[in-house]
Amino acid sequence: MKPITSESLFDLKNVSQPLVHGDRLFYLETRTDKEKNSYLTSAWSLQQKTRERVQWVSEELNPSQLEISPNEKWLSFLSAGEGKKPQVFIMPLEGGGATPITDEKEGVSTYEWTSNGASVYYQTSFKEEEEEDKTDEAESKKFKPKPITKLQYKMDGQGITDIEKTYQVKKLDVASKKDSVILEKDRPFRLQYVSKDESFLLFVDKLDPDNEWVYGASVYEYDIAKEESQLITKDIPKGSFSFEAVNETENVFLFTGNDFSHAFVTLNKVFGWNRKERTFKELSAEDKYVGDVVIGDFQQKTNGFPLVWLTDDTFVYPVTEEGKLQLYKGDTEGNNERVFGKKIHLTDGALIENNKFVVTYSDLNTPSVLAVLDINSGRLEIVYDPNKTFSQKHAYAEIEEFWYKGADDWDIQGWYVSPTDNKKDHPAILYIHGGPQVCYGETFFHEMQQLASEGYGVIMLNPRGGNGYGQEFVASILGDYGNKDYEDLMLGTDHILNDHPEIDQERVFVAGGSYGGFMTNWIVGHTDRFKAGVTQRCISNWLSFYGTSDVGAFFVEFQLKKEVKQAQDLWKMSPLAYATNIKTPLLVIHGEEDLRCPQEQGEQMYTAMKKQGVDTKMVLYPKSSHGLSRAGLPHLRLDRMEEIKSWFKKYN
């Protein structure tokens, strides 16, 4: 069997965004292209009985947001050609080519079909064009200053956003191609629903657009005729919510969100809004996180398993629970039961009929498959595996799930990835996830498979502060970073070393990104037990993070429960304060366009290591935001992995 390498990324594919039309299942298939250094997507259909596959949309169009019009006449999607902005395309379901129906200079971000399929509501933006400067000074004016006036003026993956723009919802008649402006604002907002009679829209906007220090967003109802908006969740003043689904009679709308009672770490729940009675109440199971926060590094263009109505009174919704994405069935009276709980990661889904769904999923040794799920019987039938041949020829690592006692005797979950060669006296890596309000789980992780193929064991733990274990567990980290979460990680490492005597205890390494980068910095400042470390997209100094991160001011105040005036407290919680203790060789990896954990955070750690005389190296990646390891430029993802492996090999 062949090992899984960095280059394996170019051989693997993932499927996503499944849809149903008659006996055909539509879906997207995405692969990583080495020559084009990009991710390429095509759209396919699969005939359920014969399993015949037909390509509908080529990689040249690279489709996303796949939909079928309510009149079942069109397959629609967003597509952006090379160097162009995304537009809405349609193609006849009875056969024919794809054609664009929008032509917006700034492109289309999202769209919604009307109930009769005759029109599309879509979202776009524009900015006032300045007259072209044709003087000799034109070239010198090419690079303009960027005046900033807003608190939130940048966003990771997007850059500076404080630019004078107008944001619009437009309606387009498909037959005539005529469009009209329905709603317009001077700030970003997000269209979510168009009523069947087109009398109102639902959109997400800031809770208080006039107060920049009010965090959060929620759903507004917009009366199209009266041109008036009202906040649906006004009785939950700090709550953040998003519309998910409406029943057939259009009288109960499902929302996900929370009341912000535990700030960023408040568990998301399902709420039902009765539009006629104007009531808003919680409907989901107690102490469960509704939604998907299981992390991996392989899936592309997934939407997550949706909330789906089964009848006018019952619905299915996803819950992250103990490293799995499980399905619960709820109703408008607030009754709930778990209906599916296998050890997999459901990444997308759509209702076929009754209690049967088409889904895409992954597990520890399954990169991505298309399957049919019957929640009555629990039967899960794979109908297409794009990686079948690859899996037959390559060796996946054996992965063991385990539980152990962390700080305060809490039960903590983890996974141990054994090296594929099963050699005795092998090295191991404690690899710490980001967030921290996410979790490792039953999903494919390309990076961990590579490390196992290189002969490393990988320790993956879900310390307190992560999701999937209840409200107390995730909220326990608030104002307490680097304390009992650190204990959880050290106790988990001890547990694995005791259970796996084949690990060479003199060659145990530590690595992590984002929160995992913070914790890597913290660990090497508090213990010398690790042979070497790799800190990625890290946090080293909460004081500078406060003013430079795109979420810094809110994150520090809500997560650390400190304000910038409490400088001494923030410094004590910063890994940089303990740099004089560090003896562990440290590789620093950072994206140059990371606005979530800005580059200066990694630079400060690197400079401190130089001052300390500790062996160190910093690698900066251009055109790379916070998500480099998951969705960055492929050649940079490969280079990053080679740097990590080379660093560990140096001390192995």
Q: Give me the number of helical elements.
A: 11
Spans where pLDDT lies below 50 across 5 or more residues? none
What class would the helix/strand composition place it in? alpha+beta
β-strand amount: 35-45%
Distance between the termini: 25 Å
Overall spatial form: globular
Largest sheet: 8 strands, mixed
Q: Which strands sit side by side, in order, in the main sheet?
A: 32-33-35-34-36-37-38-39
Helix content: 10-25%
Strand runs, count: 39
Name the average pLDDT. Answer: 96
Annotate the secondary structure layout.
Elements (H helix, E strand, L loop, with lengths): L12 E9 L2 E10 L4 E10 L5 E5 L6 E5 L5 E6 L7 E6 L6 E2 L9 E4 L5 E8 L27 E2 L3 E2 L5 E8 L5 E7 L4 E5 L5 E7 L10 E7 L4 E4 L8 E7 L5 E7 L10 E6 L4 E4 L6 E2 L17 E2 L4 E8 L2 E8 L4 E5 L4 E9 L2 E8 L2 E9 L4 E6 L3 H6 L5 E7 L5 E7 L8 E7 L13 H8 L3 E6 L8 H5 L8 H16 L3 E11 L1 H10 L8 E4 L5 H7 L3 H8 L7 H6 L13 E6 L7 H14 L3 E6 L6 H4 L2 H18 L1
Parallel strand pairs: 34-35, 34-36, 36-37, 37-38, 38-39
Antiparallel strand pairs: 1-2, 2-3, 3-4, 5-6, 6-7, 7-8, 9-10, 10-13, 11-12, 13-14, 15-16, 16-17, 17-18, 19-20, 20-21, 21-22, 23-25, 24-25, 25-26, 26-27, 28-29, 29-30, 30-31, 32-33, 33-35
